[in-house]
Amino acid sequence: MLVDVDARVLANRHLSDTYNILELEAPTIAAKCRPGQFVMVKTALGQEPLLRRPFSVFERLRDRHGLLIGISLLSKRIGKVTQDLFAVEPDEYIRCLGPLGKHFTIVEPPMSAWMVAGGVGLAPFATLAEALSELHTNTTLFYGGRTSADLYHLSFFQKLGVRIILTTEDGSRGEPGRITEPLKRELQTTNGRSAMIYACGPTPMMQSVAELGANANRPTEVSLEPIMGCGLGGCYSCVVPVRNDDTKSQSHFVRSCLEGPVFSGTEIIWPNLI
After folding, report:
1. Are residues 230 and 219 in the same domain?
2. What is the CATH number of the domain that holds 181?
3. Fewest CB atoms within 10 A around its CB: which of 181, 182, 234, 271?
């Protein structure tokens, strides 16, 4: 069941002049959401912008007694909505609808889990890492950005025992280059034979990860980030081309907000993805 609330802002942590983590008081959404699901949000003040914007649920927040009290969102300031979210203050309110969408498949030992994130594509992996940790699934985070300034929240994953592999395109942190390079090497090792791969980030990166996973015969799930007007399937703004199950040679369109945002990497017709 969906929940639509005016969520009180608990904190707005500015990670830089571009990125922030917004903490919202929304215990019912926190209790219902699964890793990979998202919410539709906008500031509660005024009517502009008219439409909400989708955000992956980043963390499920707990009080000192361990009770769920809300969720957090990882945001990058780009347009009107993200600028508003960057500027909100504690005790203001955010309109929040969710949880929405299809969630990740959570694997258990002896399978391992490899999460591949590009920049703000880290967003769906905090809740996923927590779920995997509860099952004692061996987990690795492959995390890439243009510069070291695009890499955040590493201590959260380290506390969960997640192995972290970093790359930056300018070589300022971790291995220089793109995150798909260490992923390719790891797939050639013994560890790669039991890995479930999850990916979120720029579309070309996710396509490369899906192709690497398919070539290595490893299951891969991607979390797409198409433009969404409503998040409920009514506007058809987030259609995604997928393969027909019967022929695999023809495609049809599905709505990412309903059938996704999590898809099998081999299900997507990548060249036709808008």
Report:
1. no
2. 3.40.50.80
3. 271
| Predicted confidence (pLDDT) per residue in 192-225, tens digit | 789 999 999 999 999 999 999 999 999 999 999 8
**170-176 long-range Cβ contacts below 8 angstroms, 24+ apart:** 170/146, 172/147, 172/148, 173/147, 173/148, 174/144
Query: Which tens digits make up the pLDDT trace of 49-92?
Result: 667 889 999 999 999 999 999 999 999 988 888 898 999 999 99
What CATH number is attached to the domain comprising 239?
2.10.240
Assess whether 113 and 96 both reside in one domain: no
pTM attached to this predicted model: 0.94
Give the Cα separation of 137 and 131 in Å (integer): 9
Per-residue model confidence as pLDDT tens digits over 243-265: 876 555 567 899 998 999 999 99
Angle formed by the axes of helices 203-215 and 180-187, to 10°? 10
